[in-house]
Write a structure and sequence with these properties.
Layout (H helix, E strand, L loop, with lengths): L5 H17 L16 H14 L12 H8 L3 H13 L3 E4 L3 E4 L4 H8 L2 E3 L8 E11 L2 H6 L7 E11 L2 E11 L8 H5 L5 H9 L3 E12 L2 H7 L6 E11 L4 E9 L4 E3 L8
Antiparallel strand pairs: 1-2, 3-10, 4-5, 5-6, 6-9, 7-8, 8-9
Helix pairs in contact: 1-3, 2-4, 3-4
């Protein structure tokens, strides 16, 4: 090596070392022939694992593209495709001029991603949530099947009434595994400062990323009629939702009963690009 080339090579080595030390641990080179899948999917899986393991906490900024691409030893385009996938799933969020961050559950995100009830004239508001009951229970067959566990598994059962524009519109029955939410109390639930999904994420490390729902028309039972001030037997809309967390794990089973006299269930459907 000549003296004139040496400073340039030393500079490159120093840059490579700086990138390695600036990047959080857990991001390692991905060998194309060892991935067993398209390379961008292997990068996506590595990023998702870092989020699941807490190496990238909710609200944390991702290292810049150059650092991450160097850590994974992949092209910038491969990295961007992996990040695009996670942005589309609302696991990551891009903020113009600031970078890419691990998504956090906010009131706005809950309203537009997970709450689909609006007034028939199109007015959409965040609901006022009233806790009706909180108890420790054993899962029945239905909730256990939805949460991929056994009947009798310890759980918390939460009953809420949701008001929109002052009217009681939604009656929620929520079942969550006690093992995922150790230390949850009625006091913590009542005194939360944001949505219940924000509570899951910020205090228990459980991040809801998507949900699977089934809808049907049913007659209102007595509990729903009492909670919503309607008549038993009145037709209502019932939504059975299983909330899915990071890693594809079901974390919440919710049965929402909705009075549709003045409100609709509205969902935006789109085809994948």
């Amino acid at each position: 090596m000549t003296w004139t080339n040496r400073p340039h090579r030393l500079h490159n080595a120093a840059m490579a070392l700086a990138l390695r030390t600036a990047t959080p641990p857990g991001f390692a080179s991905i060998a194309p022939d060892a991935a067993g899948m398209p390379l961008y999917r292997a990068v996506r899986r590595a990023l998702l694992k870092a989020i699941e393991d807490g190496a990238l906490a909710p609200g944390a900024a991702l290292p810049n593209e150059t650092e991450l691409a160097a850590a994974f030893d992949v092209a910038i385009g491969t990295l961007r495709r992996a990040v695009d996938d996670l942005v589309a799933e609302h696991i990551l969020v891009r903020r113009q001029g600031r970078g890419t961050f691990v998504a956090t559950h906010t009131r706005d995100r809950f309203l537009f991603q997970f709450f689909h009830v609006e007034r028939s004239d199109g007015l959409r508001d965040a609901p006022d949530v009233e806790l009706l009951s909180f108890e420790r229970v054993r899962m029945d067959e239905e909730s256990a099947a939805a949460l991929s566990t056994r009947a009798g598994t310890p759980a918390f059962r939460i009953e809420n009434r949701l008001r929109l524009q002052g009217a009681a519109v939604v009656h929620d029955l929520i079942v969550i595994p006690a093992a995922l939410f150790r230390g949850l109390t009625e006091k913590r639930l009542r005194e939360r400062t944001s949505t219940i999904y924000h509570l899951y994420q910020s205090e228990f490390g459980v991040t809801v990323v998507r949900a699977r729902e089934r809808l049907r028309a049913v007659p209102a039972d007595r509990a729903t009629a009492r909670a919503l001030g309607t008549s038993p037997g009145q037709p209502v809309l019932q939504v059975r939702r299983t909330a899915i967390g990071l890693g594809g794990r079901p974390v919440e089973y919710r049965v929402s009963t909705i009075v549709t006299t003045a409100h609709d269930y509205v969902n935006l459907l789109s085809r994948p690009s």
